[in-house]
Amino acid sequence: MAAIPDPLSRHTLVMKFGGTSVGTPAAMTQVVRIVRSEKPRWQNLVVVTSALSGVTDLLLRMVRDVAVSEETFRADGAELLQRHAAIADALIPDADRRRAVMGEIGELAGRVVNLCQAVAVLGEATPRVMDAVASTGERMCVRLLAAALNSEGVAAEAVEATQLIRTDDHYTDAHPDLETSYGMTRQGLAPLLAHGSVPVVTGFIASTAQGNVTTLGRGGSDYSAALIGAALPADDVWIYTDVDGVMTADPRLVADAFTVPVCSYREVSELAFYGAKVLHPKTIRPVIEAGIGLRVCNTFNPDHPGTRLVAELEQQRGVIKAITTVRDLRLVTVEGRGMLGVPGVAARAFETIARLGTSVPLFTQSSSEQSICFAVPAGATDRVVEKLTETFAHEIYHRDIDSVWATDEVGIVTVVGAGMKSTPGVSGRIFNALGMADVNVIAIAQGSSEVSISLVVGAADIKTALRVLHALILRPEKSHDQEIHESHENGKRENEDR
Questions:
Q1: Fewer CB within 10 Å: C terminus or N terminus of the chain?
Q2: Is 214 inside any structural domain?
């Protein structure tokens, strides 16, 4: 029988729970169980939480509903309180504690209502006001979760990250001052950890030097956990969500999708960019740079090992790691024989699209320079084509550009795996598999890092392409540790055998 490790040999763990992990009484009960089970195993434990699932959307809807009526946004505020009260009733049996927590949550909800009234008077909501409103969900949740933990005998204290993370004043997507934030985090959390308490910290939010609330944008709560982990520093950061780690494909589209045991930073960055439900690249960077362990775990299946993320993964058991997709796109093409040697066509095209605020997840150009095409969201396509036609009106008139046009709906299917780099024949296997399934590839793009290959296919072919390409992934048969330490020779032999 293996010896039980000394709990104090594992020093500091940061655990982050997403909105679905805390969104219902049953879900938050599971979070409390997980934290309570991990507490004896770590000398220091920090919990970072998002708002309850759907609450941030509800808060932002309150601001939008100002234009409808005061009755409407007050009804939204009542719904906000009801959702938190349902969890408090289920998880906080002590009446005095429950009353105190709901009193604080009620005050926060009241401030949002006041802000909505101010917006109604002024007729607009500034980014600073939007951050003040959007941050409220996390501020409510930490109070609720800390009280729930205390009710189960786990000493915990709610902490607002406005006291830990300092940012610039780029509201709604603020950038942290790392040096200042790391110092503030250590200073703010050290006393609580020294007394054996579990800080329950707001994700997503921070503050400026003037004390104004800011938010960290997409992936904000995960980013908060990474920053806190790097500041302490932690031994590990565990990100809890509602799936068993990073999946080889979307299980809703590929029935036999499974968890990727180990994933490199580059791989997960590509997966995140192309639509997979994984961490945003900015979340990972502070942890990886600090040499801290990072895992993606499932709140509702805590015994599953999830996915371990590492800086580099030279030993590859399989060449292809995962498949992901971005749907609801169209491909816009600018083409003309007169484009050959004409400088600035791509620059002008992208400048036009940027002015529209439209994202471009993929772009490719023929080597003859006679056409350039890029994917844009389907809903923005007509506007993009219209503005590009205006931009190149002179070239179209002089027949340097023949046309600007768009395809029907398409999707981007991206094959990801660091093992593809310097491995011959990968593209051949991919295109052969698609050809055998009668899937037509409309366009292709590959990054210089060779970690991914992106293919554009028709909307009707997306599921078929995912299923066919997923069959090229080797299913793991070994543990996480064995996966990490497996030799390159064994991995190469398995790929050849396949």
A1: N
A2: yes
Range of the domain at 216: 11-242
Spell out the residues 6+ positions from residue 463 whose beta carbon is closer than 8 angstroms to its own: 253
Per the CB < 8 A criterion, the answer to whether 306 and 296 are in contact is yes
Question: Quick check: 249 and 466 in contact, CB under 8 A?
Answer: yes
Last residue of a domain, one of 242, 263, 294: 242
* Alpha-helix residue ranges (DSSP H) falling in 161-217: 178-194
Residues 226 and 356 in one domain: no
For position 353, which CATH number holds? 3.30.2130.10
Give the Cβ contact number of residue 186 at 10 Å: 15
Can you give the pLDDT at residue 447? 67
- What pLDDT is attached to residue 235? 94
Closest alpha carbon to 335 in 292, 369, 301, 375 = 369
The answer as to whether 128 is a domain residue is yes
Total number of residues shown for the chain: 498
Residues 236 and 331 reside in one and the same domain: no
As annotated, the binding site for substrate includes 56, 138
Cis preceding-peptide flag for 233 (omega within 30 of 0): yes
Radius of gyration of the chain (CA): 25
In the structure encoding, which two tokens stand for residue 298, read together?
Answer: 């499932």
445 in any annotated domain? yes
Task: For residues 66 and 213, state if they share a domain.
Answer: yes
- Known binding residues for ATP are 16-19, 241-242, 252, 277-278
pLDDT at 169 (0 to 100): 95
Binding residues: 16-19, 56, 138, 241-242, 252, 277-278
Q: What is the mean pLDDT of each run of 10 residues along the chain (498 residues)?
A: 42 95 97 97 96 95 84 89 97 97 96 92 91 97 98 98 97 95 97 96 97 91 95 95 89 89 84 72 81 92 92 67 92 86 82 91 76 92 96 90 94 88 81 94 80 92 94 66 38 37
pLDDT at 108: 96
What integer pLDDT is reported at residue 282 of this predicted model?
A: 77
The number of folded domains in the chain is: 2
**Of 253, 56, 76, residue with least CA distance to 136:** 56
